[in-house]
Design a protein that fits this description.
heterodimer; A: alpha+beta; Alpha-Beta Plaits; 4-stranded antiparallel β-sheet; 22% helix; B: alpha/beta; Rossmann fold; 6-stranded parallel β-sheet; globular; binds thiamine diphosphate; binds magnesium ion
């Protein structure tokens, strides 16, 4: 049987302050950094596009993933594609680079996900907004709508409802312009996007085509 | 009903619970296969031998299909036990463990076990009953949204939609649980789907076309990583659970010994490298060895294999291996640079990539000085404990004594707490798949049901020992009935400190000794409790009776429980407090 140390003493070895120390340091993202420098990985906003199998629960899986992993998302859209078996999810995220990398890799692990990629900055992105404003100054409202290439969907004695599409910046500017009339309600779809030109938004492996 | 303690055939056990009314789902007369039969046929096709489970209304059709099947069924006392047993079965064999439960409470009772399997990447398939499809969404009796509840804690899950496809759902779930990075899956089985008819035959398990696992790492990355390792002065290998799960222990041994690189393990990595080897630095992290934590803190090149850099391992990431270039081998790309940035990401299967690396190594690093330093730390910081004659029995002694009294291939399972850490520290693991514990989830109650699963999985001549805490044992001790019924040879050592000791230790260290709800004013006599179940009960009160009782308990055929009265004041050290600096591990409370 084991030999016992019957002395009343604790664990042997040099105390913490007597030990050799490493020179370096890591940031909170686990990246080796200059110990003197400020650890900084600023977030950036980007569009991630996922092609997924069109099956029940896939949106719940994806949105659950975002909340569980505390990914900071600005918007998420999902809808059909040219193929009935597929749907496309477009997510706008704001994360530092390691976070964006994680978003892509974690999405890739969701079983019904076919392909994931971060779109380039030249991607074609669009959002649709429906704005309902007070109808006190209908001509001015109309002028703003024209200016932003919008469309009037409904004009009544008390409210006017318009539709606008554009990139995020344009939508934000338009909403600002409507504020003077008194905005009653806004509904935004969130951004949807495709890669520009010949670049593929999603690459589908042959055996899934 | 059967007599207490009698050995029961699985099929009889099914009958014993058949008093629950089956309101719907008339037994089918036709010769065509039911959905339930298709489920069982799929399991058989996948090579499954044993199912752990508990009966109940919505799963009855599936149990009925088991009646005529060759599959063994182990009737557990609680569904959590079924999930832990399946998890341990997966850990010991490497093949998916199967558990089964009814809808509602049966399914929710599985949740802890599934979460555990998810955290520890254990292959588990859970089959859950569900109310008939037409009642889903109506808050029907025993209806729970099992797919919703289990989505965040499984690799994937399926709601079976038709008798024609249910067999394939089960095959797919089995394949996924076993594929790439292993993990749990669930198939939810509405009663109309399992009672409905189908003529679709079972299929061989295969994963969905969207799943693509890379096993071979990019050659260029391998070459660069190999160069980094060769250029290193103070390299360390960090072996995680992925080495054990990937069956890469031989490749690891060959690589480490050929290039003389010290090996540190994570907790799930225990067993990846023989702890009696010179290069074995053993477990690092919160309660890791001093020498492992020195080596991992000061290394200039960390070859990490199959690990997710859990915070119990890294402590605060700012001070984790801060001088090291990190080569990270993992089959799951999402683990690369998740917590610790990889300078050399090598995505692939552990064994395959180790072979690739070995091939690509232009030589070996010059490590003799570093290896010497590591050996010095092994001496300086050797694990020890004070055991004066006038103090109660020390738990560390018990772990060492049981280790000495058993063969090397003995499987050790544990609960969660101090006893678990002593089982890590004071047992010398030399073989893979002999260490079975709740690492990532830290689920008290894991010990006994996992010993049952391990018993079913292990070879007949292999021993299964469980080190449990009094608190942990009380969470699932009802599973003793299963061990007795099935006459399973398991020896449980309850390291009884009449407290949830780990909490008591933290209260003493970090809450000014305010011992709120951590000391038990009364615990049962575990030896007599065992006897009430029909198991053999033993008690150890001190050093004098320890060796004899350990021998006797181990020699008992069938389940035995040893109530070990240990020193309730004993603490676990070394210790790195949560978020702390591994290199600054405390050797006693004064260092905290
Ligand atoms: C299910 C569960 N509940 C609570 C905890 C928190 N916890 C961690 S260790 C511990 C003490 C365990 O007591 P015991 O099993 O007697 O082990 P000891 O630390 O005394 O060896 C507790 C309560 C946990 N890990 N799991
Ligand atoms: Mg205890």
């Amino acid at each position: 049987m084991s030999e016992r140390n019957t002395e009343r003493e604790g664990l042997p070895g040099p105390a913490p302050e007597e030990r050799r120390r490493p020179k370096g340091r890591r940031s909170s993202q686990g990246i080796r950094i200059d110990p003197e420098a400020e650890a900084e990985h600023p977030p950036r906003r980007t569009v991630i596009s996922a092609l997924v199998e069109h099956e029940p629960g896939v949106l719940a899986r994806v949105s659950g993933l975002f909340s569980r992993r505390q990914f900071n998302i600005e918007s998420l859209t999902v809808a059909d594609t040219q193929n009935d078996d597929w749907a496309r999810i477009t997510v706008v995220v704001e994360e530092p680079d390691p976070g964006i990398d994680q978003v892509e890799k974690q999405l890739e692990k969701v079983v019904p996900v076919i392909h994931v990629r971060e779109l380039e900055t030249d991607a074609v992105t669009r959002e649709l907004v429906v704005v309902k404003v007070d109808a006190d100054r209908p001509h001015e409202v109309h002028a703003i709508t024209e200016m932003y290439n919008g469309k009037t969907l409904d004009a009544g004695p008390r409210t006017i409802t318009v539709e606008l599409t554009g990139d995020e910046q344009k939508i934000n500017d338009a909403i600002d312009a409507y504020r003077q009339f008194g905005i009653r309600e806004i509904a935004r779809t969130g951004q949807t996007a495709l890669a520009r030109g010949e670049t593929k938004t999603a690459v589908v492996p042959d055996h899934l085509k | 009903m059967t007599d207490h303690g009698a050995v029961t055939e699985p099929d009889d056990a099914d009958d014993a619970t058949a008093d629950e009314p089956a309101e719907d789902g008339e037994p089918t007369e036709s010769t065509a296969q039911t959905g339930a039969e298709s489920v069982i046929a799929s399991l058989e096709t996948a090579g499954v031998e044993t199912v752990f489970g508990v009966q109940g209304g919505a799963i009855m059709p599936v149990y009925d299909a088991l009646y005529d099947s060759e599959l063994d069924h182990v009737t557990m006392a609680h569904e959590q036990g079924a999930a832990h047993a399946a998890d341990a079965y997966g850990a010991v064999t490497g093949d998916p463990g199967i558990c089964m439960a009814t809808s509602g409470p049966g399914a929710t009772n599985l949740v802890t076990g599934l979460a555990d399997a998810d955290m520890d990447s254990e292959p588990v398939v859970a089959l859950t009953g569900q109310v008939p499809t037409e009642l889903v969404g109506n808050d029907a009796f025993q209806e729970t949204d099992t797919v919703g509840v289990t989505t965040p804690i499984t690799k994937s899950n399926y709601f079976a939609s038709s008798p024609d496809s249910v067999g394939e759902d089960v095959s797919t779930a089995f394949a996924l649980a076993n594929h790439g990075r292993q993990g749990p899956t669930v198939v939810d089985l509405p009663k109309d789907v399992t009672t409905g008819e189908t003529d679709v035959d079972p299929v061989e398990p295969s994963v969905p076309g969207t799943v693509d696992v890379q096993t071979h790492a990019d050659d260029e990355n391998v070459a660069a990583a190999a160069q980094t390792i060769v250029d290193a002065d103070e390299p360390v290998i960090l072996a995680g659970g992925g080495v054990v799960k990937g069956d890469a222990t031989e490749e690891l041994y060959a690589f480490a010994t050929e290039h003389e690189i010290p090996v540190v393990t994570t907790m799930p990595g225990i067993g990846a490298f023989p702890e009696d080897h010179d290069l074995a630095m053993e477990m690092a992290g919160m309660h890791g060895t001093g020498y492992a934590n020195m080596a991992i803190t000061l290394t200039d090149c960390l070859l990490a294999i199959g690990t997710r850099f859990d915070d119990r391992l890294t402590g605060g990431v700012d001070s984790f291996a801060p001088d090291a270039e990190v080569v990270h081998v993992d089959i799951d790309p999402a683990e690369i640079s998740k917590n610790i940035e990889a300078d050399h990401p090598l995505i692939g299967d552990a064994g395959t990539v180790l072979d690739q690396l070995d091939e690509a190594m232009p030589g070996s690093p010059e490590t003799s000085e570093w290896a010497e330093q590591c050996r010095e730390w092994q001496q300086e910081y050797r694990l020890d404990y004070a055991a004066p004659e006038d103090e109660p029995l020390k738990p560390q002694y018990v772990v060492e004594a049981v280790d000495e009294a058993t063969a090397d291939d003995t499987v050790v399972t544990t609960g969660v707490g101090q006893h678990q850490m002593w089982a890590c520290q004071f047992w010398t693991y030399t073989e893979p798949r002999t260490w079975v514990s709740s690492h990532g989830l830290g689920a008290m109650g894991y010990g006994l049901p996992s010993a049952i699963g391990a018993r079913v999985a292990a070879d007949d001549d292999q021993s299964v020992v469980c080190f449990d805490g009094d608190g942990s044992f009380l969470m699932t001790c009802q599973e003793l009935v299963v061990a007795v019924r099935e006459q399973m040879d398991i020896t449980v050592f309850v390291l009884n400190n009449e407290a949830i000791g780990m909490v008591r230790q933290w209260q003493d260290a970090f809450f000014e000794g305010r011992r709120m709800a951590s000391e038990y004013p009364w615990v049962p006599k575990f030896d007599t409790l065992a006897e009430a179940f029909g198991a053999d009960g033993f008690r150890i009160e001190g050093y004098d009776d320890a060796p004899g009782v350990i021998e006797e308990a181990l020699a008992t055929d069938g389940p035995a429980v040893v109530d070990v009265y240990i020193d309730p004041t004993e603490d676990v050290y070394p210790m790195v407090p949560s978020g702390g600096d591994n290199g600054q591990f405390a050797l006693s409370e004064e260092h905290l």
